[in-house]
Fold each of these.
Amino acid sequence: MADLAQLRRVFDGHWGWVRDEAREALRRPEFGLAGVLGPDEHRQHVREQLQQLAKVGHSRLGFPTRYGGAGDTGASVVSFEMLGYGDLSLMVKSGVQWGLFGGAVQALGTERHHERYLPAIMSLDLPGCFAMTETGHGSDVQHLRTTATYDPHAQEFVVETPHESARKDYIGGAARDARLAVVFAQLVTGDETHGVHAFLVPVRDHDGQPCPGVRIEDCGGKAGLSGVDNGRLWFSGVRIPRENLLNRYGDVAADGTYSSPIENAGRRFFTMLGTLVRGRVSVAGGAGSATQTALSIAIRYGQVRRQFSAPGQEREVTLLDYLTHQRALLPALAKTYALRFAQEGLVRTLDELQPADGVPPHGVEKSLPDDEGERAQRELEARAAGLKAVATWHASATIQACREACGGAGYLTENRLPQLRADTDVFTTFEGDNRVLLQLVAKGLLTGYRDQLGDLDAFGMVKFYADQVWEVVAERTSARNLVDRLRRLGEADLRNREWQLALLEDREKHVLEGLAKRLRAAGEPGADAFAVFNGAQDHVLRLARVHVERILLEAFTAAVEGCEDADVRALLDRVCTLYALSTIEADLAWFLGHGRMTAGRAKRVTGEVNALCRELRPDAALLVDGFGIPEDWLDAPIAQGAEATRQDEQQAHDDAIAAG
Amino acid sequence: MADLAQLRRVFDGHWGWVRDEAREALRRPEFGLAGVLGPDEHRQHVREQLQQLAKVGHSRLGFPTRYGGAGDTGASVVSFEMLGYGDLSLMVKSGVQWGLFGGAVQALGTERHHERYLPAIMSLDLPGCFAMTETGHGSDVQHLRTTATYDPHAQEFVVETPHESARKDYIGGAARDARLAVVFAQLVTGDETHGVHAFLVPVRDHDGQPCPGVRIEDCGGKAGLSGVDNGRLWFSGVRIPRENLLNRYGDVAADGTYSSPIENAGRRFFTMLGTLVRGRVSVAGGAGSATQTALSIAIRYGQVRRQFSAPGQEREVTLLDYLTHQRALLPALAKTYALRFAQEGLVRTLDELQPADGVPPHGVEKSLPDDEGERAQRELEARAAGLKAVATWHASATIQACREACGGAGYLTENRLPQLRADTDVFTTFEGDNRVLLQLVAKGLLTGYRDQLGDLDAFGMVKFYADQVWEVVAERTSARNLVDRLRRLGEADLRNREWQLALLEDREKHVLEGLAKRLRAAGEPGADAFAVFNGAQDHVLRLARVHVERILLEAFTAAVEGCEDADVRALLDRVCTLYALSTIEADLAWFLGHGRMTAGRAKRVTGEVNALCRELRPDAALLVDGFGIPEDWLDAPIAQGAEATRQDEQQAHDDAIAAG
């Protein structure tokens, strides 16, 4: 039996100390779940908790030390992730203030903004919001319609909402609390438009009244996250000083001359967006926490809840002893571990590429990366997009499965699953619509392919774990001898990790090559490029999915190989195998259809997944305990022994009757 | 272009008049959606609407004419289904009062109960509840623990909750409104227990106070359905007259002698349950209505919402022109039609086998069916179980897909998708947990197989549509020449309906045979029957799923062939093909792994699904209009042109700028 403390150490990863500190701090009563509140009370409650978070230093983690921050990007993401075990409204609200709003000031602003605003942002003296999305443009933010037109006489920008679909929409913090907004708008100076830039626009005065020219509306009820005050903003001739342009990547001189270190407007905009990638990384992490909570509740319930008798068994059968119940929960549990390890790697890369103290205080040029740095940044963005999409869909599906696995009890608010489901639901479409994100991932892969940038797989995970461990994996997964390896491993035991890795790698390579060929048609003379691309859209999404599945298996494999404790390693190895085989099982049609597997072997995959569910069943409770969620946070009656007590009481009663 | 009125006629089916009447009646302001209400106000509002429903005659439909009912079982189910376009709390609440509570009195009681209670149940003068589920027993209701022990001296039953997990739980109506409960309890007389029977137990007096010995608790918040007052009930020495036993299938004489026309306690109980099958049929129908509403909203939005430019296109691309968007919504739309036609057949069978005027007023024996009748009843129960499971999962998945397809707008309460999702969520586990229901379906198929009851497929759908139409289909699907047919059709066009039908029929046959073989091991000496059954549980669920998929395709095919209007027929034929091919596509691993299809053909299936999406895209709006949901009920801003107006306004603004 693996040791729980050892398991947690592996699960916790590099920022275990942040997790431990959060476990201590957040169990204080002021961070407890509030129970059912009306929207106004909920918002007020969350706002007060946010103030407490600022006090315990949560808000400082990701900001530069020279302004009073802790200068630890990774810690800020992990701390956010820890909030995901509690009220997700608080998590999102903190993300808005310190991640999106504060993060934009930090990443897109320069010293004048940092000095003036960051301390007040950290302390929450200056609550803000991040006004990017418009009603008409959510995915295609490069084509936002809000304008900020420079007036050289007044040395001011005039911010304008030109028509109804250009209103800012769904903006967290806008409906109630925000005083300052980072507004994304087309920068216009003279006759020229220079693309979307970020501007600091005061939206409320000290009394909480909308500033002149600003109209604010509440978005009203939502499926969940009722503690977050999402709102809409309209600007009508709102004037802001020239200095309110966040000018790291583009500036306007007093006379109206525009300058930028990046000539191409599109490239400039995507460079700006890239600095905000932390938001996606954080959402992936938060989705993981919510998923882990749901699994903890459902698996604990499945461990004690009984239903139906079986011949030869004295008591009724425990739910988790049924194969269908195991099938509903255990592969999801395995994927949750896989995502945790991939997330760990992602946060490490983010921490390395976007150090909190790394933003240069002056000017712009010095912050531009070299080619290698830019490739690394692109890789980070693609990985963040892919993991965010997969992690948030996994959260929706898994929390749903947990709800159903708990039957009527799972539908009750007191057992938390409804709120988890409703709160996380929007994760699949905010911070980037998942389907759009997967297209970004695929685009990255295709670009790499076309440009012959070399082995796409070599970068990324390699850095996240000890080089030595990785070399073993990298050796196995190098494309060079892929065909040979597959041939050699083709009849290997299904649990053979090398075979699983080679299989997923080969699938990705094949899907990528096929798509590249298919899209080549778009470049032919007279081709309808949109029709070609659109017709291949399912192929595009498939490429991104199989790519992320490979990434997950590699991350999990590396984590297992890095395990020092032999028992934990053996346990996680088996969990990893369940992840691998249930992933392969879900796509058997492809492996069969492309001659990668015989029918007999494919059939055995299903048998093996069943066998692994059976084998892991005794460790299910340990595996959810491995998440390290403090007991107080699992305050669902069905997760806390009420059901077990009732079942025992019933048994005692039945026994008494049987004894006459 | 198919004619909308003609399409609606086909969609509406036999009880089109009920649907038209409901469309008229329910658009009256008192049935309007209430908007966001607190739970207390919502319950009060729903209670008032329920009273209005009684006034407009909704409640009479399914009850016998001799007590003032309309004697139309089918109409009562369809009328319930129509409520599914509005506030689902009202639908469920009406189902509790007139379906579950009233239905149990009607189906399990005899004349003395009918005379005394049915008029007051219809008029809502007597609000009631259906107290079957206990905290400890939800799926395995044969082993409920509540007892009703006969006391011959007082000629009373004493109802008792023996321990905590025997409390009645999640009981709709219990927390606030119900005065009388149909309580399911183990009937004990003398030293003998005769299994679960239903008893009428007063739970509240005229002032709304709990009756002596009855404890009532509110279940509190739920994911959705906040207008339904679900509660818990405990009984402590509650005495009720002997006559309160609903005695159609079992009675106790004054001296305590038990009698029943059905000797075996298990068979007796399942016979009783079988009379309550209308509940599952109704839930399947209600799930359909909610699904249709969600699809109408998402498809209308997808028709006007634009995002991203494409080369050579003047305006941004409409969402529904993207293949991924079509993929997310159109196969779901096709399956929604398939379910509608299968539901129509199911309601017809129910109406035939359980006519509202058919319950004999006296005694029991006459109501027992002959062998043929019993087989038909079993078939009805299996089909209701299967369609309920598939329809409710389809509702969850489709409403979710619709929510995501509408992005942030889909997360707003005003656009209704959150409420639809949350309200329907419990449908997958109430009125029978879907996984348990699928096991019932499979059991029915296996039993039929073992007993050589002949062609399982011949009964069922056959009766639902004109015999002549059916004969054609039946000829094609008769098992006799299946192998020949498949060989002959193996290279037919993928859109060939004969091939699709044969393929699904063959798959079911193969899965059934394989499972039968596998389970045979349980009968061998020394076998662990539970382990054998449990190990095959995924196979069991698969059998039920492929069975229902075949049923759906047959029902859809029959509906198309019965279409008189050529244009509507052509349109629905294509929708049916999309249903067939997307169903086949989802299980390509099986068809490939079992040599039913070559890799090349399998690949073409995906291409054909894409092609069908493209072909049906222009008809998407017509197809959702075919549901006939009145405009007032689609009161989501994104479904009512607000978005279109905004997009046009933006375009006008852009054009003005372009013109200089």
Amino acid sequence: MGQDKYSHPYVETATGVLGQVDAQAIPRYAGIGTFARLPQRHEVDDYDIAVVGVPFDSGVTYRPGARFGPAAIRQASRLLKPYHPALDVTPFATAQVVDAGDIAANPFNIDAAVDEIRVGIRGLLSRPGHKVVLLGGDHTIALPALQAVNEVHGPVALVHFDAHLDTWDTYFGAPCTHGTPFRRASEQGLLVKDHSAHVGIRGSLYDRADLLEDAELGFTAVHCRDIDRIGIDGVIEQVLARVGQYPVYVSIDIDVLDPAFAPGTGTPEIGGMTSRELVAVLRAMRSLNIVGADVVEVAPAYDQAEVTAVAGANLAYELISLMVG
Amino acid sequence: MGQDKYSHPYVETATGVLGQVDAQAIPRYAGIGTFARLPQRHEVDDYDIAVVGVPFDSGVTYRPGARFGPAAIRQASRLLKPYHPALDVTPFATAQVVDAGDIAANPFNIDAAVDEIRVGIRGLLSRPGHKVVLLGGDHTIALPALQAVNEVHGPVALVHFDAHLDTWDTYFGAPCTHGTPFRRASEQGLLVKDHSAHVGIRGSLYDRADLLEDAELGFTAVHCRDIDRIGIDGVIEQVLARVGQYPVYVSIDIDVLDPAFAPGTGTPEIGGMTSRELVAVLRAMRSLNIVGADVVEVAPAYDQAEVTAVAGANLAYELISLMVG
Amino acid sequence: MGQDKYSHPYVETATGVLGQVDAQAIPRYAGIGTFARLPQRHEVDDYDIAVVGVPFDSGVTYRPGARFGPAAIRQASRLLKPYHPALDVTPFATAQVVDAGDIAANPFNIDAAVDEIRVGIRGLLSRPGHKVVLLGGDHTIALPALQAVNEVHGPVALVHFDAHLDTWDTYFGAPCTHGTPFRRASEQGLLVKDHSAHVGIRGSLYDRADLLEDAELGFTAVHCRDIDRIGIDGVIEQVLARVGQYPVYVSIDIDVLDPAFAPGTGTPEIGGMTSRELVAVLRAMRSLNIVGADVVEVAPAYDQAEVTAVAGANLAYELISLMVG
Amino acid sequence: MGQDKYSHPYVETATGVLGQVDAQAIPRYAGIGTFARLPQRHEVDDYDIAVVGVPFDSGVTYRPGARFGPAAIRQASRLLKPYHPALDVTPFATAQVVDAGDIAANPFNIDAAVDEIRVGIRGLLSRPGHKVVLLGGDHTIALPALQAVNEVHGPVALVHFDAHLDTWDTYFGAPCTHGTPFRRASEQGLLVKDHSAHVGIRGSLYDRADLLEDAELGFTAVHCRDIDRIGIDGVIEQVLARVGQYPVYVSIDIDVLDPAFAPGTGTPEIGGMTSRELVAVLRAMRSLNIVGADVVEVAPAYDQAEVTAVAGANLAYELISLMVG
Amino acid sequence: MGQDKYSHPYVETATGVLGQVDAQAIPRYAGIGTFARLPQRHEVDDYDIAVVGVPFDSGVTYRPGARFGPAAIRQASRLLKPYHPALDVTPFATAQVVDAGDIAANPFNIDAAVDEIRVGIRGLLSRPGHKVVLLGGDHTIALPALQAVNEVHGPVALVHFDAHLDTWDTYFGAPCTHGTPFRRASEQGLLVKDHSAHVGIRGSLYDRADLLEDAELGFTAVHCRDIDRIGIDGVIEQVLARVGQYPVYVSIDIDVLDPAFAPGTGTPEIGGMTSRELVAVLRAMRSLNIVGADVVEVAPAYDQAEVTAVAGANLAYELISLMVG
Amino acid sequence: MGQDKYSHPYVETATGVLGQVDAQAIPRYAGIGTFARLPQRHEVDDYDIAVVGVPFDSGVTYRPGARFGPAAIRQASRLLKPYHPALDVTPFATAQVVDAGDIAANPFNIDAAVDEIRVGIRGLLSRPGHKVVLLGGDHTIALPALQAVNEVHGPVALVHFDAHLDTWDTYFGAPCTHGTPFRRASEQGLLVKDHSAHVGIRGSLYDRADLLEDAELGFTAVHCRDIDRIGIDGVIEQVLARVGQYPVYVSIDIDVLDPAFAPGTGTPEIGGMTSRELVAVLRAMRSLNIVGADVVEVAPAYDQAEVTAVAGANLAYELISLMVG
């Protein structure tokens, strides 16, 4: 399969799934770029995990540009290899992972776009085992993602890595922006009450009430300034205790990383996590049942030497590896 | 005035108007940056020309970022000096020019934004002599600018510098985007029939019909490929013949310049005008009655060494100089 | 076709060919990026023109990086639209144009790579009507391209746009580098004797003999410094007179453009052509029988805001339009 | 106030002070940019803390460009919000904070500039409660700042964050450069003997004597390489023990941060502090009586995606928050 | 010579002079970089033309950074080859050209620096045939260069390529800055009265008097806006007529080029010359007796892909070629 | 010596060796740039440590460009000063350190290049005390470096800092690439069996077997993810225990640093070491007998504000300081 009908010689693995394009046959920088040089959705019969781009950034309040996030992350993902040594998994052989392309979302109408994204993701979750990893796009897209996941799994626990709470109410009258998805998700009952956590919070806020309201909505927050005190092990402990046994949705705003590690984003905040810390927390979540995830707010126009896009690609790879782990 | 009450020692000119901050007293790189280091609107009793930012870019179809255009153009405008040798005018002494700040426009609702921009510009045109130069922002803002100008002056002739026609109909169902302002303006009767011109058109189109419909809407187009044939003098002749004696609105999409001269924009097209050509055409328009103008689509995230923003600042300076000439 | 089986809703044109992804359905910045959002080779039964990437840059003598040229040009080609107004053609409806992906070439062995590229291109020319547009890659690739074209068409006339002659003999003992393809081609009898031309030559040389030997090999050169004297019309006249009625191969080294228009390349030379001039020359070649072409030496690591990649994409579009014209 | 007379709708806080422009009314990216979108000095009757730019960089020994620091920091400060959760303060409501514009300093005569800066800052300290936060400019400006502060408060304890000691003697015969302010300050009796500390020192030196002389001048140094050994708590302990109960001046050379966190500076040294560490040390200083402070050596021409300018803006925000804490 | 004693295998030419490092033996990107990979001054017994860096930028009024100009131009000059086809000369074989290193100039005291530069250049002109090409640094250095040239040759005709007149009087009290060298030179009798010309002037001025005073000082100006009217031939005619038979000093401020061609400079002005035009004017000056020259205001921190530095290197190469022509 | 004969006034130190150019006489940004402004090899009679560039990058599998590494590191090394406080050594006074220029290596033939590099380095090790620090170039160069070192010292212990193992077998049939030097070195008996260590390993691999084969080849690996668990002290302990008393070769691939600290490299991996960590490990190796070392994979085209080049220069400085310690 593949070699005859399609342009890329995907490696057919022992488990029968179609893996990446063979890097010994085609250099990594060559070929039309799917995520991790994996097959497209239509090139396989079925899949376990679909990586899908959501190039939508009309919900941003400061620097736009995340609409080019999926293209940049795909380009940066050419460096990903099949074996994940820290988790000791070979994700693209263990599961059929595909690049499902991008969901087209209306750039001029947020409500329409949210609906299009929800429908698009729902379509990727057509059987129970289907899992999805979104490449944003701005954080607005987490709301329709949670809506779609909810239709399949019911309320989920959320593990949300971000510099910001994203539980504001409205901005310029708009209920759905990149600063509001988790308030909306909470209001719509998409989250298991009191089993969600923010990790990496920092930076100035509008008001002390921001924190109080966030707690009332059922979130707990691990602030960045706590990390040195409780250590990464402490962070992991808090996260695992919080989510319990529920199905989990993981949302990673790339700005959870310090701007040194992720300059290409819209609302940078100093004092952030290092990529080593973030990866350590993620890898500790291997026992969880992650049913969906996103990596958002990669804005390539502000990136340098693909540093942010490479981070985005690797974080998606970590998420996939957790899903198959 | 100024020195006591405000932070900047504006030069009080012989004509009584308040000019730029004195560059012999305060280095050009110093001070909070208004356009050309001119007084703000509230620092003078009245004004002749108001420069106003419109940081709105929710109407773009490709690269966003022009919302940071006004800030970048202001920063780049620090280099502007009081005397324009080619036109032999001293615009900031001849007329009271002010920086009227930015118009706040809803980033999440194009229709609301268009209305806010129209109201904002209308407010700057409170007496007949008032003229306005907009710093965009994407090209969507030309529509509310023309609406406001129309309320004062009635239909105007449009001289539109751009790589693109901007007379498309809708895009993703939206009637007001950066690709549609002049079709809407034509439909709304804001333009004097058959007295408007596009200059600098080039690049691929959707269909041959794009050109036909544009002509039906009452526009004529000077294509970039014609310039070498008819020369800049030929371009000038066509433009002047077209607009006649009507009041004129000049709209400059920075992408009328070749990407070499203006890389920091959203939809670059090769084969464009040089800045020397553009300036030559503009200066030939000194006899026209320009009642309003804009410089749009400067997207700083794609700029290099302020090349595009410097172009934007100088083009605004040319427009002001024409208005006082 | 297309919509069901493949991920992208390609426009099915009146002529029956499968065109670009519909920009009214999917925003230009969305979707896995083929050249101009055209179908891949395996998505159609046959094709007229194949666009193919050749990500090989091991033949460079100064700045490497053109191996990322195909990916960058594809990304920049998202802005291309179906109708070419200057030539009044709709290339993607008139002919079936496809993205044939990239040819894998050995980065560590130039001779092996040259052979792989020749075989790859030959495979794309499997019936007489097939035409090919290469996206480089460094200029080394023009040699195997000419070899493959020769197998089908016999000797061709070459129109070569470049700052450099590329007829040097060897460099560090290597006969095939980006500075030597056209000496090798001449020696191998791939070119019709005395019917080939360089356009845009400039910059310092090793020796006066470089020019003499180039002439002896059967080339004529239009130097950049001649353009202002003879005009673009003069350049066109010389080119057309030179190539006569022979089948033509067009090779465009992006450094034929001045570094202002194409900073992202390996061996920049000042005093180059503008993109407007280059496009004007190309469009005058519409009567020629162009059987193959390339756009090479786009090195994205040195690019700014995709200026060079956008030029590369548009030049490929011009070439395709000439081929269908 | 504000709305009628001035261009920006500053939030009038419950405490009667005029705060930031309302981000719900005017997007953060809009409006002429004062620091943190705060009122200018002339827009309020009096103030508690004045933020003032000092765009002077004629004292640098390597990369210049910090003269554009104030403009870049102001632009980056648009993201600052009113509430500081880690310190639990609302600085712009607790105190009247203003942007006092820039001090004009002669770029061609260091001695004249030092005097102009001293006079300028002294003018901002016209009553005992006035505090000042300088935005540099290069580190030369710390000397006149200390001179002005001394006129009001007498000798102060200095907490100096920097990769470099800045206690060299002369360079090319000049006594006042960015490498010498604290030797001069010590010689001029501006510092309380033996109560000043450098934090973050690292990199190569001219001579072992540099350290000895620095100690003789009354400084102690916390080297970057000590941080992993003694921890941030150890650093804090040393700093607090050192400064005692004296009024404190805090001087932050942005190069105390590792170049990863602050690439946009003049003399980068590897092995630096992270922004999280720096902020942790600063926040532990809340009990101190900080009477003046600076953030210097932000050189925007070397910055990437405003990473350094955002750091500068946030550090100024931390300093203001400490002053009101 | 050379190969044994020094690290680089310079080509010994038929004329006995020591030329560039052999590009067939050592790749252009290799080796410690002198200008054009030429010998250093101490590696030859005598020389005809000395290229010398003057890394001084303390005279700038806006963006600093030209102190890194010589290093950047040297790096970019690696691409220069021995034969100049347009002038049909082999400059490095016809004359002994050397890289004389950099003149150390005090960055903190302009007067001291001017004197150091004058002495340094005078030292390079120790016999009548010696000629010098300076690599700036800012335009301040043209004054000491003219002083040194005057000591040898007496008053000279100046051909000055620049966007700006550089005949202002003082700025912040300083008589020697990058805006004043030619007024000082005129006052000091360094120029032959009424035989000097500015070429490429454009942009806004302080006052109409700027032009009048410039004319009174004995200059004529070819404005950029004239070029399209009189053509390059007209420019050449005016320049040649102006300088007559006098010894000539050529001063090239890189900002005479449009920012598209030279973004890396301190005070960019739109509407400038193309590099092709500039080179055409220069080449027409081959009959002149050029005794000294400079290329100034290359500020690498604002450059992109070495575009500006490559222009600087090539312009120095043109000047050298004219000197030997 | 030096001042008379050569262009730079090197400091003659008390120990009789010729040190850096005097920074009080010539500003750091001035002068033709050798590494750390040290003498060239031919400017001294003999030397202890030779710093030598190896601008070769034809062995890379992804982003090329390290051929410009030596030039960029030299330029960034201008900031290095003579005294290393952490190690309390004055390396350029304790030992005669020279810049031996670059080794010319064939860019088109890897085998030839490997041989040229081996010969070049061997030539620098002409007496037992000679030590060498290589500035790469890509990691391919470590193989000929080890071969040359072996000829003098026999098998050595390797301390290898890298994100990648670099013990792959072949890639596209080539045995010598930047991914294979240490497998080849092991096979060729260049390493003391079981006394070599990788430090900083991370990122995805091709197969679990990669790790097993690496161990079979005699390597141990300290993974980046272990650092937080065992601490830098633990890393040091493992390294020291591993290398024992053997002569040591230290190879630093700059990508051992996180991309935040070294964006300018070819195959970035997130989750890397900080420069503070790396320097701490290096400094703990002062008791070792380091006979040779390299710093490789600095690719300037991807760098930002010289961050990576500055790291490369400082790491070379650390290595030299260890060699003299």
